[in-house]
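Is guanine placement plausible here? Inputs below.
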Amino acid sequence: MLIRASLLSAPALQELHFEADGGLVVEGGFISDAGAFGAVASRHPGLAVEDLRPFWILPGLVDLHAHLPQYEAVAADGLELLPWLERHIFPAEARFADLAHASATARSYLQDALSLGTTTAVLYTTIHADATDAIFREAEACGIRAVIGKTMMDRNAPEALLEDTATSLRTSEELCRTWHGRDGGRLQYAFTPRFAPSCSRELMTGAGRLARDYGAFIQTHLAENLQELAWVHRLFPEADHYADVYRRADLLGARTLLGHGIHLLPPERTLLRELGCSLVHCPSSNAFLQSGTMPLSAWLEEGLSVGLGTDVGAGPSLSMFREMGEACTASKLRRASQQVQTARLGRVAGITDEQKHQIAEALDLEPQPTLDAAGAFYLATRGGARALGLGDRLGALEAGFEADFLVVDVRLSDPFGRISPNPAQALSRLVYRSDPRLVQQAYVRGRRCFHRD
Ligand code: GUN
Ligand code: ZN
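Reply from A.M.:
I modeled the complex. Tokens:
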């Protein structure tokens, strides 16, 4: 198949690639050629051309962190993390004991995610092994690329969502044996100790061991909310900091995805960088639950690996286009707030400049560069792929990459239904004015998994 369309990708954080009249050859699930249409067509004279102009082709989007069973509980507003879990989330997760409900939710969720451009989804399920198996089956059928894990909890959760340690480890291992690497690696397993407060040391250590044994992923939450931090400190007095709880359980490595990471100390960041873990930035969730704003630019500058996640149901939408916009907005609000606080601090009388300097440092007031649409697009494509260790195979429109891509109608984000001649501006509109109908088609490994009628 030789597709003719405009091609837009972000192979690096500060780099946009745009081919106004592009050609993309897809063979055997891979991109075998890409570039200017004339040049590509001349290299493949026998291939039939599928002319998709005026649509654009983008790499498929990678949602690195979401809770599929929480789809029915989105936008339950008014509470911070811990009471929100108790009031809204645990009841929704308990309903996944009902297999028919789990399958139906998974079908809707995965179709909706594909229709919004997510071709790779990294998902938490619930403690229910049968429901997790059913979710894997739905993912297998619909064609999405997915990393999925049964949520593990052996303490500090409602009775209906608690499992004993051995059962949690055994059923997680069984699911990993069944699903990890399925369909040539399209489906993968993530051992999923929910977060330190709901896991015993034994459970976390067991999960780390199993993940290493099977070469599977690990996903959990880290440093999202200040009350959560205080609780972790009480539960694990021996740990130097939150990340150290996971390090002691051997949960940190190159295949570890850590949701949020808003309130991280310098030694935690050094540890995560040295061990090659990835953080998942979830800006809409961070705002919704009033958790805080992640110093994204600073973390990136320090060399941390970061991707983006919707964190549904704390994030209210499955749209990664929307999440990209939220990431840009969050970085701007953070910078604006730093500038306001710096100005106010400057006006405080009765303390020395040296003291002001110390306060500014303690409050992290050094203004950071803001994230633009191109940067957010990178995080949602190649950056996410890199966090999964797939940066050389996924997230770009280049020969040798897997054919996960979107066909997008950029006119829907334009105020006058036009196509901007400036690709950076068009991308900015896709991100800040994302329209739920943007995605016309979504492909995973060359298979069309979504088509808008
Ligand atoms: N921390 C532990 N569990 C959760 C969850 O379900 N959502 C979010 N946002 N944070 C968590
Ligand atoms: Zn989460």
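Short version: The pocket of guanine (ligand 1) is lined by residues 67, 81, 85, 89, 194-195, 221, 224, 285, 311, 314 (CB under 6 Å).
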